[in-house]
Design goal:
Blueprint (H helix, E strand, L loop, with lengths): L2 E11 L8 E15 L4 E3 L11 H13 L6 E7 L9 H16 L6 H12 L2 H9 L2 E6 L3 E6 L6 E7 L5 H6 L7 H11 L2 H7 L2 H7 L6 H4 L6 H11 L3 E3 L6 E5 L4 H5 L7 E6 L7 E4 L1
The protein binds L-homoserine (HSE).
């Protein structure tokens, strides 16, 4: 029986104005082990996900359907570091692991471009998917195929994830968005998003502080996140680049110094944990065991 291990990084999408098109892989990982078996078994999955209806298996099934092959059962084990429904790309890790595992057991029916396309179809947008597969910062275009451009990032930067003890689903966080956007706001976002890869490469925190502001989604989502305004004020007072991670509920700060001690001193009403992360440059890694 063949066994494989797939390690997928968590990701922070949007980076403020790069809504649905910019994302960065971080050194926090979900690792999955797949082994062919005579029945389904799920190890270390939360109870509600320990079944064939979870996102990993649903994503595997799509590949078997494309290959027109019947699916066999597997033992799937997860080692989970990426918190669920916190805006750190946990669903993208499940989708990618499922697709890549099925693709391995089906002798590579899909190319890398096909994998990115299928994963984006399942997820709805490429901004977590593309960096989770490719690593580093990726700008992507959701077109007939998914256009992806990987960018280098300065090695001096730290990405602090401020993770609250409450979840926020992407569905819920998209429902509060308006249907239309003015020219003024579109220009505001475009002009900032387009320069983020340069500022991250240069490690220019002053520029990043000005670029990581958004008029497309954060004004509508921040009110859903208790205490967000307290951290926002902390960041503004110190000119620290600050944004929502993906659709939340995690918040993100970029710095060169470790911020954890200062953040711990802030008086807030909910429980938060602070995790200092670096970019992941490898993307998804599949190993045969
Ligand atoms: N770009 C998406 C959103 C999050 O902000 O709704 C990516 O999962």
């Amino acid at each position: 029986m063949k066994r494989i291990r797939i390690r997928v990084p968590g990701t922070t999408a949007n980076l403020g104005p790069g809504f649905d098109c910019l994302g960065l892989a971080l050194n926090i990982y979900n690792t999955f082990i797949f082994e062919e078996n005579f029945q389904w078994e799920f190890i270390n999955f939360e109870n509600k996900y320990a079944n064939e209806n979870n996102l990993v298996v649903r994503s595997m099934k799509k590949v078997y359907e494309i290959a027109k092959k019947p699916m066999r059962p597997f033992i799937i084990e997860i080692k989970e570091e990426v918190p669920i429904s916190r805006g750190l790309g946990s669903s993208a890790t499940c989708i990618i692991a499922g697709i890549m595992a099925a693709n391995f057991f089906l002798d590579e029916v899909l190319s890398l471009d096909d994998i990115i396309k299928l994963a984006t179809e399942i997820e709805g947008h490429p901004d977590n998917i593309a960096p989770a597969i490719l690593g580093s910062l990726v700008s992507s275009v959701n077109s007939e195929s998914i256009i992806t451009v990987k960018h280098d990032i300065s090695s001096n930067l730290l990405f602090t994830a401020l993770i609250p003890d409450f979840a926020l689903s992407t569905k819920e966080a998209r429902e509060v968005l308006p249907q239309e956007l003015s020219y003024h706001k579109a220009i505001y976002n475009m002009s900032r998003a387009i320069n983020i890869p340069y500022a991250l490469k240069e490690g220019d925190l002053v520029m990043l502080y000005h670029l990581l502001t958004d008029k497309m989604h954060e004004p509508f989502r921040m009110p859903l996140i208790k205490d967000a305004s307290v951290f926002q004020e902390f960041a503004h007072e110190r000119q620290i680049p600050f944004c929502l991670s993906g659709s939340g509920s995690t918040l993100l700060m970029i710095s060169k110094e470790n911020l954890e001690n200062e953040l711990k001193k802030i008086d807030v009403s909910t429980k938060w944990r602070f995790v200092t992360l670096k970019p992941d440059n490898s993307g998804t890694i599949l190993e045969v065991l």
